[in-house]
Amino acid sequence: MSLAGPAALPVATSAAPRLDLPKRLFTRFRASLPAYLLLLPSLVFLALFTYGAMGRVLIDALYQRATPKAPVRFVGLDNISAVLADPAFTGAVVNNLIYAVGTAIPSIGLALLFALTLSRTHAVSSALRAALFLPVLIPMVAASALFMFIFLPNVGLLDYYIGRLMPVLPNWLGDPDIALYAIMIITIWKNAGYYMLFFLAGLQAVPEDVMEAAHLDGAGPYQRLRHIILPELKPTFLFVIVIAILNAVTQVDHVFVMTQGGPSNSTNLVLFYIYQQAVEHYDVGKASAATLLTLAALMGLTALSFRTMANREGGP
Amino acid sequence: MKLIDWLTKDAPLATRGEITSKLGFLLTMLLAIVWLIPFVWMVVATLRPASDGINAMAELMPSLKPTLDNIKDAWEIGDFPRYTLNTTIICAGILLVQFVTITLAGFAFARLDFAGKSVIFYLFLLQLMLVPVLLIVPNLSLVARLGLYDTLAGVMMPFFASAFGTFLMRQAFEAIPTELEDAALIDGASLLQRIRHIYVPLSMPSFSAFAIISVTSHWNDFLWPLMVINSPDKRPLTVGLSVFTKTAEGTQAWGTIAAGTLMVIAPLLVTFLIFQKRFISSFVTSGIK
Predict the structure, then answer these.
(1) What is the CATH number of domain B79-288?
(2) For A86, which of A50, A124, A137, A281 is 20 to 30 Å away at the CA?
(3) pTM (2 decimals)?
(4) Closest CA to B102 of B258, B206, B19
(5) Domain A78-314 of CATH type 3.40.228.10
(6) Looking at beta carbons, which residues of chain A come within 8 Å of B59?
(7) Nearest-CA residue of chain A relative to B38?
């Protein structure tokens, strides 16, 4: 930081030590002014839509209106306790946990398999990588439109080809016991190729000579994976797990398009609950309280992962 | 088996005889085919004439009498040209403003020394930890208060500043030798001139990486425009497609739905197939944010 850029070298800085404090602060401010002006456009939008938004969530969560037209009144933590006591919210949290675990583990496992088998580059493996990456690019809404037909009872793709083997055809999206798992299949299909990219990048860090030494010592493929590749991929794993959990909370457009949280709330997830409270019930207080709880949980998660990563880099 | 041998011919000698990696490769190949099935169905169903009947709809073998009727129907029923225009305006508008904001902020962090630099740096970092989708409720009320409800500008605004882009540009600018700038300084170039004529032209790869991430993510945005937009003629592609799907689902017009979906994702898929390498490396950086 001592190497000031050319623009931070106005004449005033060299004379600064002789001046008294207010003057010194003023010259420091004047020297910083160009930087502030450059940062201003970004800071305005961050202030409005990120920090301001967080502040408004916090405030809105403390107020309530009895009817959409009534004036707001301060209710303290009532909104938060109302949300926590709402079976629809706790149900959404449980669903979201099942959804997070049930999408993160298979998609990360598949991503690792894809990366391990496609790490060498040749025409066939690049074609396969591209094929596995295609779902990442398309909007979740488009994926939903395709899977709506795949899951269609009787005439849909799944029943047409696999359903013949089953005595009773399942109603993939209509059965409350199955719908959440059907939704999870779409997420796994869409995200495995994305996580594959990070494992492919991580695999490049595995030292070639260590692998060769393991070959010479007669280590089998499983031993090499267990003792050399997986330890090397640890940071990648941690990072991908965090992204997968964030996606499990935020990337739920298919619930909006395909199931609307149903049947009987079996696919209701937290973000959909927030949307319902705000847009369908006009209950900004409850929606903000639910947002606040979710934000706190996610920030705790990212802070934890940052700390773990920092510990790994700094510690022994 | 010959194919597999050929594919592993550059593997280290010691592992060439192992069966595990070959089985793994076969499994991945099989899964890749499964991964492509929804896309294959989409294309086959788009070209299938309605006369084949609902029971043949799931057939993955292409119809012998391909037709473009489905595309025509989707084009007429859904307002796809309008949706495409709206999405293009949204993506282009966001990207243009972002280019300005991230260039200026990235330069300040890369080259200038100023009071409170680390505090402001952390303020930016905080945005990376927050998930913008979660702030839909407060941001919707703000957009409404600014009088931007049901406008494309309202859809764009929350994304005008980008911490990810700022850090990307900071990294790119830091790699540029200061000697170049010193030379321009001696020639009397102003701060903005130096950014415009030295830093920006030398950072094009970072700009294109950022453009890929920004455009794909906003092309695919659904929930935020769904909340902000009310009039049918201002819908972006994603919202338009979801409404279109709902209408066509009632009449079991699956061929038309497939055609509509194809139209929505075709621009992204074509661009990806042309610039595959760039896309992949940009997506890797987007995660490292």
Answers:
(1) 1.10.3720.10
(2) A50
(3) 0.87
(4) B206
(5) no
(6) 160
(7) A146
